[in-house]
Amino acid sequence: KQEVTQIPAALSVPEGENLVLNCSFTDSAIYNLQWFRQDPGKGLTSLLLIQSSQREQTSGRLNASLDKSSGRSTLYIAASQPGDSATYLCAVRNDYKLSFGAGTTVTVRA
Amino acid sequence: NAGVMQNPRHLVRRRGQEARLRCSPMKGHSHVYWYRQLPEEGLKFMVYLQKENIIDESGMPKERFSAEFPKEGPSILRIQQVVRGDSAAYFCASSRTGQGYEGTEAFFGQGTRLTVV
After folding, report:
1. Fewer CB within 10 Å: N-end or C-end of chain B?
2. Do B110 and A43 touch (CB under 8 A)?
3. What is the DSSP string of B80-113?
């Protein structure tokens, strides 16, 4: 059974600081890994998808790395802004099923 | 191109009533998934459907819960005789590809927040 852990559970930083969010998973036989953003009371917005054969993926200020053999992924957010405040979820795909971490709640202080 | 549409966004039911949650996948997507997010917990897989077929319902409680994805119309998650423990956010996701394809990417709806009183 796939177990996904996200550390830290919460993070508070001043505006402009870089963010580093960690995700680990127990079963390395994954198809891909997605990072999502969830705002309070809202749905999930897909940020980045990394295929199992890829090492990293970038979109704007976001960069995600994947080390499948060690079961780790890291999401980097450069030059954080108050609008980045949200909960970030890591999800790994084994065939069609996504297993989610509990999330990291980020607060960026103005 | 509309995203995954779920309705209603909020649903209040009394204990013992039935709850029906609807999900219209993105255009061109034939794979639908339902996930549940209990308060203070992560999202958990419930069921995976393709048109007219249930592929995997291993995450769905055996009693009171059922799901369908008919040939025409939205996918429906049905909860009979709701109890307080069913209060949660229910998310639907859809994808163009599904089982066996590594590049599958899921797109999620806004969720239905069910409150049982």
Report:
1. N
2. yes
3. -S--GGG-EEEEEEEESS-TT-TT---EE---EE
Please give the pLDDT value at position B1.
54
Half-sphere exposure of B44 (CA within 13 A, CB side): 14
Residue A38 to residues B4, B18, B22, B42, B66, Cα–Cα distance (Å):
15, 28, 21, 12, 27
What is the per-residue pLDDT across A47-104, written as a single tens digit (0 to 9) for each? 999 999 999 999 999 999 999 999 999 999 999 999 999 999 999 999 889 999 999 9
Residues of A in contact with B43 (CB under 8 A): 44, 89, 91, 98, 100
Per-residue pLDDT reduced to its tens digit, B16-63: 999 999 999 999 999 999 999 988 788 999 999 998 899 999 999 999
Q: How close does chain B come to A26, measured CA to CA in Å?
A: 16
